[in-house]
Amino acid sequence: MEKYSKLKELVVAIEEDFAKFYEKGNKAAGTRARKAMQDVKTLAQDIRKEVQDMKNG
Q1: Domain extent at residue 19
Q2: pTM for the whole thing?
Q3: H or E stretch including 45?
Q4: Are 34 and 21 in contact (CB under 8 A)?
Q5: Tens digits of residue pLDDT in 46-55
Q6: What is the rounded distance in angstroms from the CA atom of residue 20 to the CA atom of residue 24?
Q7: Are 4 and 40 in contact (CB under 8 A)?
Q8: Domain count, the chain
């Protein structure tokens, strides 16, 4: 459950960069948002594997 909490925090933390990118066209914010989304993907995959292992364990 700890990883899930981290995932939620990460999504909330990147909201400002998405707003800056989409509303103001800030390219640096877009770069930060893309990097953060990669982190979201990695964390989500870790959570998925953990859930699968627990289910099959």
Answers
A1: 2-50
A2: 0.82
A3: helix 27-56
A4: no
A5: 999 999 999 9
A6: 5
A7: no
A8: 1
